[in-house]
Each structure stands twice: as structure tokens, then as C-alpha cells.
Write a structure and sequence with these properties.
455 residues, alpha/beta, Aminopeptidase, 2 domains, four-stranded mixed beta sheet, 8 helices, elongated, binds zinc ion
Length: 455
């Protein structure tokens, strides 16, 4: 089985985000997850509006936690990235009204041109645009939250069908998907409806949208709406049900690194948000980080080079430090301490719970009870939160969790701690010590996880 996640194309979004005095440019990522050239390709778009976390979190999971085994999935999880991290529907106006006419001077002109080109790529067979909508769509007015004035829990099409060689029967396909997902949705309120906006017949607002742009370019397109009445992880769950159903109708096969249940979806979006700074000189899991992390060793007079597996993570220059955002959430604030860097130490030897290990700097180490850093002549180890009178170099000492002050942890549960290495006054790198946190899900260990296919 082959997995191609063309990250090379897409990692540009974070690299340029933060450095002193630099105005960040918020580009989106494109993940191409390709198993075969012949089978169909679905393009998933999340985050066209920045305040719809159900859509962009679902797309981010599709981008990072799914392995496509037949067919192809292209995913843009963070289309309006600047609005996502600033928690705004549209920091420069509603991007989903910029697809019929757009002034060249619009700040989002380039982004819109770029996503238009991706939609028009000849490989794309259908486009799914993921939204969080208000209330619950119903054909007839029921009450304030349920009626034709609402959008939640609906599959949106612009017209019954389009002239195209494949998948042009929009209504028929939307109804098939509706039947499949409704079969697994227990409560009546959450069940899906299909809504035809009949855009061509004079809906001037819908004419400006991304899906109608697709339709005009002979690309079948669907708007998927989850209700904003639900919590984020519930919205993500419904989005994934819909997307997986579309995939199965088109014959696209996949595996994912978690089970499709609300609790495991919540676990996936709330945990394991890795942040790497300056080529892993600093390596943190910031998902449950404290509001503020002090003494973060940054490099003197050098730009900050930030990287993350998550397309929803951004680091923003903020007064004398850096704000870390994950989607709509503020995760932490990094207060830096500036050092010269030294790169002569790549790995260290540590005894973890009685077992000898050689570990690369810039990685996480699982510790149950105790650890012991083997001394390296010329280098000094410093466990943030550990103090012993008269001891400057903390290698060569057996250290237990109880020896480290909880308030110095990276995370709020006091399980993650920093072990840093220095050569004289220069900073060499760190390890993230993990006392009893769950192992993160990884694509490489897919077989460890149950894969529950769609019924
Ligand atoms: Zn929306």
C-alpha cells in the first residue's frame, strides 16, 4: 500500500509565519493523498470561513489521520488560515462571496486564484466544501432553530444536475449519501436533509460561492453543513460521516488512525499538537499547554522557524513573545530567553525506567517512574523544574517525577517536562519527558487501531 501525502507542496504555510517584525502571510496547505491515478479524486475544503471549527478540524483530520488505499483525496484544511487563527468569520470579509467577481486589490485575491486553480485541476472529480451552519435546516418552518432559514445538518447542492462526464447527478448522489449517514444517526434532529438552493434561478448571494464556481466549471460540488448547535468534536464526527460516505460512493478506500466515534474524535482534535521550532531545537506538545511557557530558549537574532504536523497551528509574534494558536483556540504564549545555539550534540544516552536508550534531541521520551541522563563531558543537562542544592549539571542523577515541581510542566496535567542540554552558555536542544501520557496515534501504527468502515 502506498501513501503519498505531498507535504512538500504544502509546508510553506508555517515556515514564514513568525519572525521579529515580519508581517505573517497566511497561506493554506494542500495535501495530496493519492493511492491510484485512475480512480476518482475528491477535493475537500475546510475553513473557508474562520469561525467554523467543525469543518476545518474535520478536514485537518482527513489530511493527517487518514491513509487512502484506493483512489485519491486532496485536502485543503485551512483555506482561510488567517481568519481561522484570528477566530473571525472573515478577517477580510466573507471569502465565500469572492468566487464570481473579485477586485484585484482584495487582500485575498491571490488565495482565491490559487484555490480556483486547484478546483479546476483536471484530476478533481468532485468538491466538498465543509461548513458549520446555524440551527437545523428543514423544508418548512418549525421554530426559530428549525426551518428553511437555517443550514445545519444539510447537504447543499446548487442545482439538480450538471453536464459532466461523471457524478453530474448532484441530487441523486446527495440523496444516496443522506440515506447512508441517516442510517447510523440515532436521533431525528441530527438527521440530514438535502437542500437545493437553485442558485442559477437568481440566488445572487449563492452565485458568489465556491461551490457555484465549481459548478460553472463543470465540477460537481456539495456544501456540507453541520449544526453549530453541536460541540466541535460532534460537528467533526458528522462531517467525517458525510465525507466517508462520499468516498465510499465513489469507490475511494481508506484507513484512519482512530475509530469514528464522538469520544475518539474529541481525543484526536484535543491531543497531540506537536510544535517544532528551529528544526526541533524546541519540541513541544502544546495541545494542553499552560497559558504561558517561560524561558523558551530561542536563538539570538535569528528568525523563528516553526513547523507542525497540524495545519491549524500558527505562531504569531506578540509583544515580547509568541502567541501559539491552534485553530480557533489560544493554546499558549511562549516567553523566550535568547541564547546562541550549539549543534554539536545530536543524541544522548538515558536510562529510562532501568532501560538504556539512545535518544535523538528534539523527540519525546515516555517515562514511567524514573530516568537518569548519562553524563557527556562538556555538556550540561537541565530539567526544568528540578532543583538540588549545589547541583548545576543534572546528568548523572536518578530523577523521579516527584523530584520535579509540577508548576514547571509544559502541560496543565503536569505530565510533560523539558529536559534541556547546554554547552557552556550555548543551547544544544531538548527532550520532552512524558510521564504517563497516552501514546499518540500515528499513521505508521495504523494496524494498532480498529478501523471501522462505513456501514
Ligand atoms: Zn460556512
Amino acid at each position: 500500500m502506498k501513501i503519498i501525502a505531498s507535504l512538500a507542496l504544502s509546508l510553506f504555510s508555517l515556515c514564514a509565519v513568525a519572525s521579529a517584525g515580519y508581517q505573517p502571510r497566511f497561506d493554506f496547505r494542500l495535501y495530496k493523498k493519492e493511492a491510484t491515478n485512475t480512480a476518482p479524486t475528491i477535493l475537500i475544503i475546510g475553513g473557508i470561513q474562520g469561525d467554523e471549527p467543525g469543518g476545518f478540524n474535520a478536514a485537518a483530520l482527513l489530511a493527517t489521520q487518514y491513509k487512502i488505499t484506493k483512489g485519491n483525496l486532496w485536502v485543503v484544511p485551512n483555506l482561510n488560515f488567517e481568519s481561522i487563527i484570528k477566530r473571525s468569520r472573515g478577517i477580510h470579509g466573507d471569502m465565500n462571496r469572492k468566487f464570481s467577481h473579485l477586485d484585484r486589490n482584495d487582500p485575498e485575491y491571490e488565495l482565491v486564484q490559487k484555490i480556483k486553480a486547484i478546483i479546476q485541476d483536471e484530476q478533481i472529480d468532485i468538491v466538498l466544501n465543509l461548513h458549520d451552519g446555524s440551527g437545523f435546516y428543514r423544508e418548512k418552518y418549525v421554530d426559530r432553530l428549525h426551518g428553511p432559514q437555517r443550514w445545519g445538518q444539510s447537504i447543499i447542492i446548487d442545482q439538480e444536475k450538471i453536464e459532466t462526464h461523471r457524478y453530474g447527478e448532484l441530487m441523486a448522489l446527495a440523496k444516496q449519501v443522506r440515506e447512508t449517514v441517516n442510517a447510523v444517526i440515532d436521533n431525528e434532529e441530527s438527521r440530514y436533509r438535502v437542500r437545493n438552493t437553485r442558485t442559477r434561478e437568481g440566488d445572487t448571494e449563492m452565485e458568489k460561492t465556491l461551490t457555484y464556481f465549481s459548478i460553472r466549471n463543470q465540477k460537481p460540488a456539495f456544501g456540507l453543513e453541520v449544526s453549530k448547535e453541536y460541540l466541535t468534536h460532534e460537528r467533526v464526527y458528522y462531517h467525517l460521516l458525510l465525507v466517508e460516505s462520499f468516498m465510499s460512493k465513489l469507490g475511494i478506500e481508506f484507513e484512519r488512525s482512530f475509530t469514528l466515534q464522538k469520544a475518539s474524535v474529541k481525543d484526536m482534535i484535543d491531543n497531540n499538537v506537536r510544535l517544532s521550532i528551529n528544526d526541533r531545537k524546541i519540541y513541544l506538545d502544546v495541545a494542553n499547554a499552560r497559558r504561558r511557557l517561560g524561558y523558551v530558549p530561542l536563538e539570538k537574532s535569528a528568525p523563528l522557524d516553526v513547523d507542525s504536523d497540524s495545519p491549524l497551528l500558527a505562531v504569531i509574534n506578540d509583544r515580547n513573545g509568541y502567541r501559539v494558536r491552534y485553530g480557533n483556540r489560544h493554546v499558549t504564549w511562549l516567553h523566550p530567553q535568547f541564547f546562541e545555539y550549539d549543534s554539536s550534540l545530536e543524541q544522548v544516552r538515558i536510562e529510562v525506567d532501568g532501560h538504556q536508550k539512545t535518544i535523538e534531541l528534539g523527540s519525546m521520551v515516555e517515562v514511567k517512574d524514573s530516568f537518569f541522563v548519562a553524563p557527556v563531558p562538556g555538556y550540561r543537562a537541565n530539567i526544568i523544574g528540578f532543583k538540588k542544592a549545589g547541583l548545576r549539571n543534572e546528568s548523572g542523577v536518578l530523577i523521579r517525577r516527584a523530584d520535579i515541581a509540577s508548576r514547571f510542566s509544559v502541560d496543565r496535567q503536569a505530565r510533560l517536562f523539558r529536559l534541556e542540554f547546554y554547552k557552556d552558555k550555548k543551547y544544544c536542544g531538548m527532550l520532552l519527558l512524558n510521564f504517563g501520557r497516552k501514546k499518540p496515534a500515528r499513521l505508521s501504527s495504523l494496524s494498532d487501531y480498529a478501523n471501522i468502515p462505513m456501514p
